[in-house]
Amino acid sequence: MSLPPRQRSRAFRMFTLCSVLLSWFPGSILSAVVTLDSIEIFKTHDWLPSKPTVYFQCKGENKTSLPDVKETHVSYAFKGEESWQPLTEFSNKKCKRCGFYEEDIIKSDEFDEWEFCPSDFSDPDGRYKHFKDKELNVTFLCPDCVPLGSDVSNHTTVSHNGEKGMHVALVITISAVISSLFIIGLLVAYKYWQKRKREQEHAQFLKLFEEGDEMEDELGLGPLSGVI
Ligand SMILES: *[C@@H]1O[C@H](CO)[C@@H](O)[C@H](O)[C@H]1NC(C)=O
Ligand SMILES: *[C@@H]1O[C@H](CO)[C@@H](O)[C@H](O)[C@H]1NC(C)=O
């Protein structure tokens, strides 16, 4: 099967477009784990002088207690492998409402609550610092969030990771299938259009022929009259 050059270039353009669109999808199917890198609290909210129980929570998710964080003005650093890690996970670009709180008998007190977004991890090392005056200073770590939050321009770095490489392969397969289907659809449409055109031309030709016959009949000329 061969396509005329114009159709061929259109099909190629569509193929390119499909591939580019699909290459954005790895970002949306990734799951990026967020761990706590360091935390320092500047005050406690208890009236009575007691050790605070600090926890992290995102809306709709479970609490993560930080058993080690007991003193104010002490910077606690973590390895990311502690039993209570990770803090949360991002499965797409959407932000979550999260915060650090202090457990209390009556009602939890808030250190800070904010919109926690994958795009916050704009540092190439995957770190994000969150600071609130007189309350806390936190550093989060999420290397997988960096390609999630940023643009397509960073996609060349994606294939370094095995898991992401698989996503890329999947995307290539999907785009190949979609483009093949699209090209087949285009071919079918083109063939149909060609057939329709041929039929129309044929009908027009027949009509012309009939009209010619009628005219000759009206003039009383037989088909052979010209010859005699
Ligand atoms: C949240 O906690 C409940 C009960 O402890 C547990 O069954 C569930 O798996 C937890 N969910 C997540 C996302 O960790
Ligand atoms: C917050 O903590 C980080 C890491 O411990 C530190 O580098 C930074 O200077 C701290 N910022 C403030 C304002 O305390």
Give the key terms:
binds 2-acetamido-2-deoxy-beta-D-glucopyranose, 21% strand, 228 residues, five-stranded antiparallel β-sheet, rod-shaped, alpha+beta, four-stranded antiparallel β-sheet
Helix proportion: 25-40%
Number of strands: 9
Poorly predicted runs are 152-159
Biggest sheet layout: 5 strands, antiparallel
**Gross morphology:** rod-shaped
How is the secondary structure organized here?
Elements: H1 5-22, H2 25-29, E1 32-41, E2 54-58, E3 64-65, E4 76-77, E5 88-90, E6 96-102, E7 109-116, E8 127-132, E9 136-141, H3 145-149, H4 162-218
Antiparallel strand pairs: 1-4, 1-5, 1-9, 2-3, 2-6, 6-7, 8-9
Helix pairs in contact: 1-4
Bound molecules: 2-acetamido-2-deoxy-beta-D-glucopyranose (2 copies).
One 2-acetamido-2-deoxy-beta-D-glucopyranose is lined by residues 38, 75, 131, 137, 139.
